Amino acid sequence: MPRFQYRAVKPDGEVVEGDLEAVDEAAVVKYLQASGLIPIQARSGGRWWRTFLGRRTVRRLSPAEIGIVTRQLATLLEAGLTLDRSLQILVDLTSEEHLVAVLNDVQSRVRGGATFSSALEAQDGQFPRLYVNMVRAGEASGALDAVLGRLADYLERSAELRSTITSALYYPMILLFVAGFSVIALLVWVVPQFTVLFEDMGAALPLPTQVVVNVGDAFRSYWWAMLSGVALAALAIERLVQRPDVRARLDHWLLDMPLFGDLVWKLETARFSRTLSTLLANGLPLLTALNLAKEVVANHKLSGLLSEASEDLKRGRGLAEPLGRRGALPQLALQMIRVGEESGSLDGMLGKVAQVYDQETRASVQRLLTLLEPLLIIGLGVIVAGIIVSILMAILGANELVF
Length: 403
Known about the structure:
Blueprint: E1 3-9, E2 15-21, H1 25-34, E3 38-44, H2 48-53, H3 63-78, H4 83-93, H5 97-111, H6 116-121, H7 129-141, H8 144-201, H9 207-221, H10 223-241, H11 244-256, H12 260-281, H13 286-293, H14 300-314, H15 320-326, H16 331-343, H17 346-402
Antiparallel strand pairs: 1-2, 1-3
Helix pairs in contact: 3-4, 3-8, 4-5, 7-8, 8-9, 8-12, 8-17, 9-17, 11-12, 12-13, 12-17, 15-16, 16-17
């Protein structure tokens, strides 16, 4: 029998890893659940060749597709349809081949006796770990339709926030592209026309003009080398950022940046609060929910602070106190969490924290763009003005030679 590597969470929130022999992933999940563990991941150790050769050709499900499927499935289950019938309806309604393949595989596993969560987990990472665990909690509580409804709300709100930030960045990106293209066009097509004129007049070019001319010549003659250099630099930076030590230093630096660090903090606070709220509303214990929710936090510094807070939570110190001691969340969020703990409605208060910091994130993005757009325009103006001044200097120098 093949061996499977697994990760699971104990009832006290501790994450455990190991490997065991089993017939398939479903058997591993059943064994872990029978042992009192919450399975997170179970993958065969002998499928490296399929990961290397085949996984790259499989189209991944987008967050939007997962959100739509979740909402439709929740609606069908709430209407009283069985899970098998609901999945069949989704297959009939879907026109995307890659989504149909995933749904067919999930349905076949469910018909074979697997749980819905284990069928989702067997899709080679198509569904996030958080998603699978929330479905598993819904199965355990017998309220899968309600859990899927909350999941759909969670995915839709997360997608809305992501879309808001992305849309806000369109204008600066377009402006930056136009600025770069305009400068390159001046250097490659406009400046050479003046260079020929200066050479015919026999005038010696001033140093600023010579610099501009040389930069234009470099763009015309070595554009392929510059593009290759940019691509290699981007690849090297991507590889470098993937190193844990470099990523940790970068995340520390991002949080310390003025304006941008505040934006990252608020965005992560909204994401963490919404995730933890949804997990608690689905019936997961606080410690388990915290260990799962911290995985959605992309910033390594904040994720480390949340990990330290989870250790204090094991000692019965609540949630707000350890988070506040380490400065993991803003003060307003901490005060709201403390009120939620005192009133016994922590999941609802965390949902309000997420709403507050969604709005704060949007406001921070707008403030950042308000400063960024004029800086881009001024930067473009300075570069273009420098090119024009360098040409005028050469023209004036040539006129002095004539007279």
